[in-house]
Design goal:
The protein is mainly alpha-helical. About 85% of the residues lie in helices and about 0% in strands. It contains 4 helices and no strands. Helix 2 packs across helix 3.
Length: about 100
């Protein structure tokens, strides 16, 4: 009950205000489709490469490495696609 009061009482004031956190959420929301698609397309290739390069390392280290590589590649590719009007409209769904 208290959690619902906090969510409905504080969230509108916080989310409607101009803050750095709000700007980050807006940016993430605008590129999330591109991040999902690029991440999905690259996952197989990056996983195979990391596992072949680091076969004797623990699985948590391999998974962490895969996550970091995919995050950097996905954000980089989406940022490049955003720069062109047509690729942003066709591939990222920008209006």
């Amino acid at each position: 009950m208290v959690a619902l009061l906090v969510i409905f009482g504080v969230s509108p004031k916080w989310l409607n205000g101009e803050s750095n956190v709000n700007g980050c959420f807006k940016e993430l929301g605008s590129i999330s489709l591109g991040l999902y698609v690029v991440h999905l397309l690259l996952l197989g290739y990056v996983r195979e490469t990391v596992v072949s390069v680091m076969p004797n390392n623990p699985i948590w280290l391999q998974m962490g490495t895969i996550f970091i590589i995919l995050l950097v590649l996905s954000v980089g590719i989406v940022e490049m696609l955003k720069r062109n009007k047509w690729t942003a409209k066709l591939l990222l769904g920008k209006v």
